[in-house]
Amino acid sequence: MMLLLLGIGYTFAQNKAEIKFDKTTHNFGTFSEEDPIVTCTFTFTNVGKGPLVIHQAIASCGCTVPKYTQEPILPGKTGTVTVTYNGTGRYPGHFRKSITLRTNAETEMIRLYIEGEMTAK
């Protein structure tokens, strides 16, 4: 019985999804307070053997809004996480924000980062 359970566990582990991003940090560079909303897209690939599902994307600040591919990503296919930073009402200067993704992949949590420099009007 124990060998059967170990075999099932091993088979399940072999069919895990695995997420790989083209990059995990995006720098917006310098932009003006007059046009304070900037957006970037992170692209990822499921390099595992099972379907990949993003359960949740949580930004470190309410000024940062992530949107991500909702449907399961099959092995070898790609998806995106689009992140919008809204600097309206924020002080000019450098910022660095994180987005934490929870997935069903082998690595269950991964962080993405955005940063930039917002200049005064």
Fraction of residues in β-strands: over 45%
Q: Residue share in helices?
A: 10-25%
| Main sheet strand line-up | 1-3-6-5
Mean pLDDT reading: 91
Q: What does the radius of gyration come to?
A: 18 Å
Order of helices and strands: HEEEEEEEE
Cα distance spanning the termini: 70 Å
Estimate the global geometry from the Cα principal axes: elongated
User: Can you count the helices?
Assistant: 1
Q: How many E-type strands?
A: 8
Task: Return residue spans where pLDDT drops below 50 for at least 5 consecutive residues.
Answer: 4-11
Architecture overview:
The protein is mainly beta and 121 residues long. The chain contains 1 helix and 8 strands. The strands form 2 sheets. A 4-stranded antiparallel beta sheet has the order 1-3-6-5, with no helix packed on it. A 4-stranded mixed beta sheet has the order 2-8-7-4, with no helix packed on it. The chain is elongated. The termini are far apart.
SSE topology:
Blueprint: H1 2-14, E1 19-21, E2 25-32, E3 37-46, E4 54-59, E5 64-68, E6 78-86, E7 93-103, E8 109-119
Parallel strand pairs: 2-8
Antiparallel strand pairs: 1-3, 3-6, 4-7, 5-6, 7-8
Brief rundown of the structure:
The chain has 121 residues and is mainly beta. It is built from one helix and eight strands, in the order αββββββββ.
Q: How would you describe this structure in keywords?
A:
121 residues, 4-stranded antiparallel β-sheet, 4-stranded mixed β-sheet
